[in-house]
Each structure stands twice: as C-alpha cells, then as structure tokens.
Amino acid sequence: MHAELNDWSERLAALGAFEAPAGGWRAVVAARASREARLDRRWPIAIAAVLLAVTAGIAAWLQSAQRTLSEDAGQTVPAAAAVAADMRAENERLELILARLPERQAMRGSTAFTVAELEDRLALLDDRLSRVALEPNAPERSEQLWRERVGVLHSLVQVRYADVVGSY
Amino acid sequence: MPCISDIDLPVGLVSSARAGDTAALEAVYAATAGPIYTLLRRLVRRPAIAEELLQETFVDVLEHIGAFEGRCPLPAWIRRLAVNRALMYLRSPWHRGLEWLDKDPGGADRLPATGPDPAAPLDASLERALMTLPALSRAVVWLHDVEGFTHADIGFALGRTPSFSKSQLARAHRRLREALRQDDAIAEVTTCTPN
C-alpha cells in the first residue's frame, strides 16, 4: 500500500512543470489596484444590504404582530388556507431578500458548498411542489412542503447575508 | 519538477517582503510563481483560470503579507493561499455544479481523447490519465501525493472529513490505474495495426 502511494507520488511529481505567464507581476499589481477600487465601490452596497435586512426584519415583526391582533379580534379564517397563504407570503418575502442580496463572484469553499446544498434542496422541494397536487393528501402535504421551503430559504438568506457582510 | 516546499528564500528577503517592500515582494513572486502556477494548472484544467487564480493568489499575498507570522516557510504560506483560491473556484456554484465536480470525468476542457503516441515519454499517459479524473478527485490526488497534504488538511480545506479525502484518493488511484491500463491497451493495438 505504502509502496504504491510512494510510486504515485514519484510518478506524479516527475510530471512536467508549467511556466508562469509572462508579465505576471505587473498583472498582480494592476489586479490589486482594481480590487481596492472595487472595495471602495462596495461600501454603499453593504450599507444597502444591512438596511434591507433590518427593513425585512421589521416587516416580518409587523406582519406577525398584525396576525396576532387579527386572531385576538376573533376573525375567522379557515386555518389550513391561512397557513398555506402565510407560508407562500413568507416564501415570497425571503425570495425577494435573496434577489436583492448582491451576487458574490467568489466565496469561501465551505460557504459555497453550503449555498449549493441549500439550492439543491430548494430545487428538490420545487420539484415536489410541482407534483403535490396529484397526491391524495395534497393540502396537508403542500403546506408541509411550503413550510420546509421557508426553512431552507431562511437558512439560505442567513448564509448569503453573513457571507456578504463578512466580505466587507 | 521544482517543489514549492524546496524553495528556499533568504531570510532578509522574507523580512523585507513582510514589511511590504515592493521589490522584495516582486522577488518572492519571481521565485514562487512558477511552482504555484504548476500547482494551479494541476488543480484546474483551464490555463486562463489558472492564470487568474495565480493573480488572485498574489493579490492576496500583497494584501495579507502583514498577517504572515513566519510559522511556516513563506512559499508554503503562499501555496496555502493558492490552494484555498483553487478549491474555492472548484466548489463555486457559479463555475461548476457540484454534480459535475463529482461525476463528470471530463468537462468542456478535457484533453483530446486520442491514444498515446508510442514514442511519447511515459508521463504523457499519466498526464492524460490525470486529466480524466473529476476535478475534486484530481485535487485530492495532487495535494496528497505531490504536495504532501495530510487527509486531515485536505478534509479541512474541502469542508469535509479526512475519511472523505481517503476515499477520494483510493477511488482516484483506482481510476488512474484503469486509465493507464486502457492507454496501454490502445498503444498496443496502434503498434500492432499494419499500415
């Protein structure tokens, strides 16, 4: 086993080397200047992202307070339909926040991996939601899937938001 | 092939570079850019991407050289930055889907799938075999077998466990063996076919 590993190491290490591109240092210096200029431009975006998140938080709190007041007032809304509508509204709200977060061209490997996993789960849930009408217990199943989608979206917003804020 | 860990930079040069001296940093670039570029070319297939990652790596060096504490040799620290950059690229959902990384053995930039030239040196087959590996497997092989990373290091860098790195390595070695065997078989047929 070790002999084989050594064999691979030697053979791979013996492969040819590549020459670094000419003029590389000048390109590095120019890229650094460009990155600094980009960072200067990003401050307003960071502030906008923070404001957006705060606004979204306040809106969520207001919605929740309004709902509590409505329930206290004894308004009768069919329970299942109200929950499903809430879930959809929450989904839309979170999608809106996600859409407004600035797209990052590069992120930490572990963050990118988490984002990709969450996006995969969203795609899977969307697929299930598109077929849920055919299932026998469609209303309950649909509500459950929407609820799961809200949970995944919440996580995605948190990860993306933390990544955006952490990059400044 | 020059090994990054073999690069020995003078202490004075490292000190000047740490202090942000531009000429010293340029000298560090001149001494390390080749091996770092070779490493990046082994981790990502596209030369243009490797060039971009090389550039980004040294921009990181310029920006963070003050944070280099000298606990390891400077070239090894730069290598770590380069590996982080390359892995970030490989795992980025914008550039490569995870599924592609784990399953597609080739990709758009795979090497031409021609048989080996019998007159070509032995490592031409290995080059081709290496390029048939999925990006992630190739990274694990290169980091472990050539750069001397431990499975714990690789697992950490990939946000996975050391066991993941071990299983990737075992699978990659198996694939390399199979690819080399197929290459040999093609070479034999080519040699035996009458003109």
Rounded mean pLDDT score of chain A: 77
How much β-strand is present in the residues of chain B? Answer: under 5%
User: What pattern of helices and strands is seen along the backbone of chain B?
Assistant: HHHHHHHHH
Q: Quick one: biggest sheet of chain A?
A: none
* Radius of gyration of chain A (Å): 25 Å
How many distinct beta strands of chain A? 0
| Separate helix tally of chain A | 5
State the share of residues found in helices of chain B, binned by percent.
55-70%
Largest interface comes to: A-B, 36 and 47 residues
Report the structural category of chain B: mainly alpha
CATH class of the largest domain in chain B: Mainly Alpha
**pLDDT averaged residue by residue of chain B:** 81
- Uncertain spans of chain B: 97-120
Strand-pairing-aware structural class of chain A: mainly alpha
How many beta strands in the DSSP annotation of chain B? 0
Distance between the termini of chain A: 47 Å
Count of the domains of chain B? 2
Proportion in β-strands of chain A: under 5%
Total number of helices of chain B: 9
Indicate the topology.
The complex is a heterodimer of chains A (168) and B (195).
Chain A: H1 2-13, H2 24-72, H3 79-100, H4 109-131, H5 138-166
Chain B: H1 11-18, H2 22-43, H3 47-64, H4 74-91, H5 98-103, H6 123-131, H7 135-146, H8 151-158, H9 162-192
Helix pairs in contact in B: 1-2, 2-3, 2-4, 3-4, 6-9, 7-9, 8-9
Question: Which key phrases capture this entry?
Answer:
heterodimer, A: about 170 residues, mainly alpha, B: about 200 residues, Rna Polymerase Sigma Factor, Chain: A
Give the gist of this structure.
The complex is a heterodimer of chains A (168) and B (195). Chain A has 168 residues and is mainly α. Helix content of chain A is 80%, strand content 0%.
What this model shows, in words?
The complex is a heterodimer of chains A (168) and B (195). By secondary structure, chain A is mainly α. Chain A has one domain. In chain A, 80% of the residues lie in helices and 0% in strands. In chain A, helix 3 packs parallel to helix 5 and helix 4 packs antiparallel against helix 5. The mean pLDDT of chain A is 77. Chain B has 195 residues and is mainly α. Helix content of chain B is 68%, strand content 0%. Chain B folds into 2 domains: 95 residues, Rna Polymerase Sigma Factor, Chain: A (Orthogonal Bundle), CATH 1.10.1740.10; 88 residues, Winged helix-like DNA-binding domain superfamily/Winged helix DNA-binding domain (Arc Repressor Mutant, subunit A). At the A-B interface, helix 1, helix 2 and helix 4 of A face helix 2, helix 3, helix 4, helix 6 and helix 7 of B.
